[in-house]
Amino acid sequence: MLAVLLQTLPFFALIGLGYGAARTGFFNDQATAYLTKFVFYFALSAMLIRFSANLSLAEVLSWPYIWAYLCGTMAVYVLTTGVALLRRRGAQEAAVEAQCAAIGNTGFLGIPMLTMLMGPQAIGPVMMALTVDLVVFSSLIVIVITAARRGRVSLSTLASVGVGLVKNPMIVSIAVGLSWSAGGQPIPGPVNAFLDLLGGAATPCALFAIGASLAGKSAERVAVAGWLSFAKLILHPACIAVFALFVFPVDPFSAAVMIAVASLPVAGNVYMLARHYNVAPQRVSGAILISTSFSILTVSAIIALVS
Fold first, then answer.
1. Residue 141 near residue 95, CB atoms below 8 Å
2. Please, which residues bridge with residue 283 across strands?
3. List of the chain residues with pLDDT < 50
4. CA gyration radius for the chain?
5. Contact residues for 48 (Cβ-Cβ < 8 A; gap 6+)
6. Dihedral Cα 8, 13, 15, 20, nearest 10 deg
7. Helices 155-167 and 169-182 sit at what angle, rounded to 10 degrees?
8. Which of 31, 69, 91, 205 has the greatest number of C-beta atoms within 10 Å?
């Protein structure tokens, strides 16, 4: 574990640097927002296109993997929803809390860190998990909250979810890269150099942006935020391990990557959704802050364990 911890420390040091820059006022909220937008729409997209363009769909698509990840994530999603409903929090708050337990920071933290720690062969499994998160669970929270408010699931809601998926730059980037790969042609030299240069900015900028965004977070309602952090950092990878190792025929390496993906802290976009719908944003804020802080140890331990 110590060896893995030392390898992950530079990643978390960059997060800490961003946190310090924002806490001292050197990096304000507007700067953080624009840096996040740059990573999301440009740098991370370039990285995903370049990665996926060097993979074939056959290398990426694995139905046992998809089912194991989907079932394991759904298990922790249902468990967290049930706990929230038992606390009489209502369907909307339950959906937001379940999202905290199910969606990790795969795009900004998982892709660069796991690719370095587990090798380039981890790219395909990480992107499969990211796709399931985006297509299934990021859509589910919108559907549940909208249905709770309107009393039904309408075609307009489903249509807006579909439009949101089509416009998501991470999904678009993966689709573009795999489409290019399907053509069987290598990326032209200048284009590859451009994607490499732009994508190289994704890792440091993403980690710095994570830290800067944490500076505005507060750990109010610590008990609930602590429970959600425990669900994300411990229960999610545990549920994934059960389905990947004992239920579905997932190869050992892909199972290890899947468990590592599940161990990542709560994703920042959960807070964006909570704030957009005005449903428990402070609770989500606390879960992101606590889970990211403790993930320095838990992610290193789980990666060391599965490796």
1. yes
2. none
3. none
4. 19
5. 111, 127, 170, 173, 174, 177, 199
6. 170
7. 60
8. 69
